[in-house]
Amino acid sequence: MPRRWLGAGDVVLLSRAASPQFVVPISVRLIREVPDRHPPWGWTWIEGYQLDSRGLATAKRELFVLVEGVQLTVVRAGNAEGPLPASAGSGPSQPCRPQLAIMRRSTYCRMPPCR
Question: Are 27 and 77 in contact (CB under 8 A)?
Fold first, then answer.
């Protein structure tokens, strides 16, 4: 069976088949496969969000896994067969904006101000 490339939004289950570190299996929503690294044949680096039992992201992780051991559980919207349920992909109506903390320059800093 040809290898299906993992992509952003896919949810995978990682167990001992993927790596010895996963004694307790975890679910991960993929951000991307990391192309910058050159792992041994059959292995890959992935970035993703570890999901809790409700499917909410709890931590961002970079993981080294055996490709054959990665179990695809949910396919991203672009690869889905048929329409998605109404709840799929629903998020906030407004885009999320990070809260930026504005720091004041201390009086003893000798660097020129940023422009």
Answer: no
How many whole angstroms from its chain centre is CA 98?
18
Q: Which two tokens stand for residue 35?
A: 């192309």
What pLDDT score does 38 carry?
Answer: 85
Q: What is the DSSP letter of 42?
A: T
- What is the token pair recorded at 104? 């004041």
Give whole-number Cα distances, 35 to 6, 25, 56, in Å.
12, 25, 26
Amino acid at 69: G
| Residue closest to 89 by CA, chosen among 74, 107, 103 | 74
Q: What is the pTM of this model?
A: 0.61
pLDDT on residue 95:
41
- The four Cα atoms 28, 33, 34, 35 give a dihedral, to 10 degrees, of 170
* Pairing verdict, β 57-66 and 71-74: unpaired
